Amino acid sequence: MASASRTGRRPGDSGSREAILGAARAAFAVGGYEGTSVRAVARAADVDAALVHHFYGTKHGLFLAALELPGDFTAALPALLEGDVEALGERLVTFYLGLIDAEATRGPLLALIQAAMTNEQAAELLRVFVTRQVISKIIAALDVPQPELRATLVGSQLVGLAIVRHVVRVAPLAMAEATAVVAAVAPTVQRYLTGDLTQAATRG
Amino acid sequence: MASASRTGRRPGDSGSREAILGAARAAFAVGGYEGTSVRAVARAADVDAALVHHFYGTKHGLFLAALELPGDFTAALPALLEGDVEALGERLVTFYLGLIDAEATRGPLLALIQAAMTNEQAAELLRVFVTRQVISKIIAALDVPQPELRATLVGSQLVGLAIVRHVVRVAPLAMAEATAVVAAVAPTVQRYLTGDLTQAATRG
User: Fold this and answer.
1) Which of A155, A186, A201 sits opposite B186 (nearest CB)?
2) What is the ipTM of this complex?
3) B89 contacts chain A (CB < 8 A)
4) CB contact (8 A) between residue A202 and residue B90
5) Please, what is the angle between helix A120-129 and helix A103-118, to 10°?
6) Which residues of A148-171 are buried (b: 16+ CB within 10 A; e: fewer)?
7) Residues 98..127 of B with a Cβ closer than 8 Å to A: which?
8) CB of A194 within 8 Å of any CB in chain B?
9) What does the pLDDT look like over B12-26, one tens digit per residue?
10) What is the pTM of this model?
């Protein structure tokens, strides 16, 4: 307690957490994921590195906390990528709709997308997140050509779905039943992940 | 000239245009397309209704000007909807990529999407635009069930494509050749427009 009053901050108080997350966002945006260390973030936030580890575990946990994404978002991906590869699109879209259709988990995800639309620092965080957390896992799980292009195509459909359904809210997609949305969008995601992307759209 | 100095505004000056467009955006956002009249916009902008018609033609022209979209955007849609229906997805995606890949036409479109992400007034304008300008034309041109859902699904893919390719700029979709993007995305748009949307994603 005496040491806490000396520094003006108690370990675990929200001021320290906010300072750490603010420093982490700035550091990840400037240095990317690889160029950022827990130690440098702690220094910038004026706290001990042990406190950062105490709050957020590894650099990975710090990164996810800085993004303010629901914790299970990336944790769920490996399990989704397992199992019947032909139903992967359906599993992914069902899981993603569950996230964006629930108010509790929708907020941080939409906030990240909205921030990335207007702020280059947030856009860089989203790029790092997609590249490291999503694309790398898809590459590891699927034996397909052009896995990076496939992952970003999936991203384009899922980001657009969140925007039309929950931000701009254009009817009838905005209020369509989740099962109808899955039936419509899952084949798109499935084809992006495992289909032939070079086939001409026309038969001629 | 004497009358111009009396009102402090010359017909045709950019001040009048700005006042009219500002009043139009506010009116369309509050009243929607149907609830907005050229006369009410003129009154709110403190100009004569004839001046609004002189600048923007009909209410439709005023609405498009308020959105700041490239003029040929909706004009091109009927022609795109004509012709071989099985190549419709390819024509639409090729046309849309042409718009968003060219700096001159990308700006207003991205600005509208970005504004709609963070501003409810802009979101309402985009909803009105999509409903009246895009969905209605697709309904008129295609004999398919659920044309409104199909149009919003297409919108979700195209909006997401613009965001990943040009706003958040996630590699490799951000720098992929237009032909590769068309090959990847056109079948999605084609299926949304004319395919079976109720088919289960899995074969089981």
Assistant:
1) A201
2) 0.76
3) yes
4) yes
5) 120
6) bbbbbbbbbbbbbbbbbbbbbbbe
7) 113-114, 116-118, 123, 126-127
8) no
9) 577 899 899 989 888
10) 0.76
